[in-house]
Specification:
The chain is α/β, with parallel strands linked by helices. The protein is built from 9 helices and 8 strands. The strands form 3 sheets. It has a 4-stranded mixed β-sheet with strand order 1-6-7-8. β4 (55-57) and β5 form a beta hairpin.
Amino acid sequence: GNNQAYKLLQTYAPQLEPDIVILGFYLNDFEDNTYPLDQFYRGQADDKFAFIRQYILTSDGSPTRITDPTHLLYRFRGVEPPTNRIEAFLGKTHLGSLTLNSLDALRRVSMTAQNTQREIDVTRSLLQSIADTTDALGAELLILLIPDSTDITQAGRTYQNALTLFDELNLTIINPIDILDTSDYERQPGVHWLTSGHVAVGNMVSDCLQIYRDTGTWQACAGLTLAD
């Protein structure tokens, strides 16, 4: 998340004294920013592993660490644990388990709007802090937006939220969406680039940096939205 990037910037930038700071922004940063830096740990069972988020958010958005191993095991399996004896009993049957999972999904949907606004607010604050820190170093900040594969064919809400936020904060961004194809992404879960995607975007950023070095301006960079 951007909270990790901000921590790294604070720690190393004063020593490195960069001329340019490039922040990669992927759309799951919105959610990750609402959790502490140690939000994940690597869980393993039955020769399989998964990164488990070891925090839950309370109703006011405060993160609370999960210490119950059984709760974490449920999360490893991709579900939330029963909250009472009735749910525990129902969860032992196929139909009951299906019903509880459906109720969990409905609860997540009902909280989406509230969570989305919280994610935007936290991300806005972090991006502003990164921009202020970079400016204090006398460096240029360039945001590399990393769209989801689904945004290639139809821009999603989170992608649009990111663009709105960058515009609001007057940030310079480079957006490679026009040079990417869905074939540049792995099929499942479809959020990471294959080699072709990395090469295309790497060349785009490299060309942009070369232009900036030669001219002292970003204007001629492809896919660039320039801050006023």
